[in-house]
């Protein structure tokens, strides 16, 4: 009887055109996935699940970190809203994220493909950043509470994001 009712509710939901939410994580363990993703942790802001991250154990260069995340089927963390920035700000200073201007100087691209518009006044970067100091700063770290462009060959802690 109960199963019949549940089936009817499910049918009504599908007919109603509402797609049930798809959960990629198991709330019971606070992880976002099983197996190789079991060390990724759900990140909340004010009780709302925002994103799924794994903070590095040891530092790498940008290229090493990007590769490390990609090999696992993830990416460097994309903090493209101020809410997501708040999650980044809870962590250690000098953390590499998924944002760079490697392709075109001054044009910062998030690793979800979106462009960070008007970077100097975006609200994401520190004052007087991005500076592209010595013409070689194309990667981005948290520095204080906002972002700074830095060289891509220096070792930094980093964060991978499961999407
Ligand atoms: Ca640059
Ligand atoms: Ca800089």
TrEMBL record:
The record ties this protein, via Pfam families, to:
Lectin_C
Keywords, ordered alphabetically: Disulfide bond, Signal
Instruction: Give the top-rank taxon of the lineage listed in the UniProt record for this protein.
Output: Eukaryota
Signal peptide annotation: 1-17
Mind telling me which SMART domains this protein's record contains?
A: CLECT (SM00034)
- Span of domain C-type lectin: 52-161
Q: Read off the InterPro entries from this record.
A: C-type_lectin-like, C-type_lectin-like/link_sf, C-type_lectin_CS, Ca-Dep_Lectins_ImmuneDev, CTDL_fold
Name the chain's protein.
Hemolymph lipopolysaccharide-binding protein-like
